[in-house]
Amino acid sequence: MNNLSRGRTILTFIGIILGYFIALLDTTIVNIALPKTAEYFNRDVRDISWIINGYNIAFAVLMLTASRIADQFGRKKLFLIGLILFTLTSFLCGIASTLDLLILFRVLQGLSAAIIVPVTIPLAIQLFPKEKHGAVLGIWGAIAGVASASGPALGGILTEYFNWQSVYFVNLPIAIISFIVSYILIKESYDKTASKNIDIAGMLTISAAIFCFTLGLIETSDYGWSSFYVLSLFAGSLLSLTLFIVVERRSKDPMLPLSLMRISTFNASSISLLFTSIGTSAGSFLIAFYLTSLRNMSVLEAGMTIIASSLTATVFSVVSGPVSEKIGGRFLASFGLTIITVAVYLFGSLDADSSRFDALWRLSLLGAGLGISVVPLFGSAVNNIPADKLGIVSGVTNVARTLGMVVGVALLATMLSSNMKNELSTARDKAIQTIQASELDASMKDGMITSIQSMNIESLQEGNAQQKMTLEKVLEQVDQREKEAFLQAPSQKQETIKVAFDHNREQIKQLWPSINAEIRSDMAKGFSSTFHLVSFLLIPSIFIAFFSDKRRQKVNGETKRTAVSSH
User: Fold this and answer.
1) What's the CA gap between 540 and 181, in Å, rounded?
2) Is 458 helix (H, G, I), strand (E, B) or coil?
3) Backbone φ, ψ for residue 350 (5° rounding)
4) CA 359/CA 233 separation, integer angstroms
5) Which of 2, 163, 461, 471 is most buried per CB count within 10 Å?
6) Total H helices, total E strands in the chain
7) Start-to-end C-alpha separation, the chain
8) What are phi and psi of 98, to 5 degrees?
9) Are 283 and 373 in contact (CB under 8 A)?
10) pTM of the model
């Protein structure tokens, strides 16, 4: 390869990577802008959350369909269409005049991202010889880690120094550059074995299955796992999946050849990738909540702390790709998932007074596990299937990762809420006992107890500032009662009243630090229980990942995979 063709290849690869980067970036970059967006539109948190939910649902639902259509009619065509739509919808999100319009444009943006992401692997791999595929996947995995984990930090900077609209406008120059480079340099590619017949029934049934499942997981936070609505969505998902299998078995040109499901390494890789996303959720969603609610960090500070995981993931992704090509992916994948499991368990040893460094090194360990495991898992999925099926396989593995993230957040939110309610109940009881044993006046005790009883998991989501506000409210009640007492009492008794109220204020100020410390300590126990439980749920993935790649055999002195069959 001469320097000119080498430079062209690298530039083409960069063009593909830029499109992939912004599509994944938008799964997390808007999160930090939600409070400002809620304030701008004067809407509550539940309404605002659909800015994220709409994108994630659309992203997951269309990915398999887009992969199949790209295989049939051209991956370059679909990639360019996706970039055009993503650029347009990003602009429309930035100028949206109502929240309903913003959510609509976010759904359309998620659909365009679903077109972009699955075709990036087959487009990128075709640029390089097979011996370079490990390194390519390493870089690809590193970009994935950077995009997802750097979203909160970049979103925080943009929101802090510009406005919430900037998290959408930042996509425009990147998408335009990606489009220009890709339009000029990328060569078209197809699945040469794929028929041009579109499997409408298969696309509709699998899309319905993913839609119902994803929406059901998202709605568990509002309706609960046992609600009729959520259970109906899960039942609809199961029914649609069953219909999909029936349709695909009878179809002459199925969108997802079921023969792929008989490749054990492909199944193990996909399941393991789902587990890595659950681990990632613990290192982003859950640790972010811990940092803001217990460590009293701003959302921007928390985002800048969490980025440690993406930095180590980037480094280890670049290294693990070539290494997995030489020694096989099964050992690296299992080792990486072991590190993820250990890291999540170690998160559980953080307490209310742990330092930022305590969180940083655990996040770095988690990132190392992700970097070591994700690239070999993708590599195994790609290397152990027929080459023509690369597009649809990319779609399946990306869907697995996306569903893993949604499953992870739903499970973590449920477990944390349950654990936190139990711990806060204990903390409230202890605080009330402390107040009742104090020297406060009876009316002052009642006021403080009322404030303590109003504290719950929802009110603590804004972090320690919410607890300070509760103390301020108690002191405001003291001030109000003092004014009322002054109005009703004769002038000669006002000095006595003032002394009594000053005494109450001092008592409250002395009591609050110990009460607050008790609450924070019990909250930390709620986080600890959740982290430990999640780590136990991740243990099976260590063994599953071991079957994600073929056993290597020595052939003429070289280590090679055993032959792959799709039957």
Assistant:
1) 43
2) coil
3) -70, 140
4) 37
5) 471
6) 20, 2
7) 37
8) -135, 160
9) no
10) 0.79
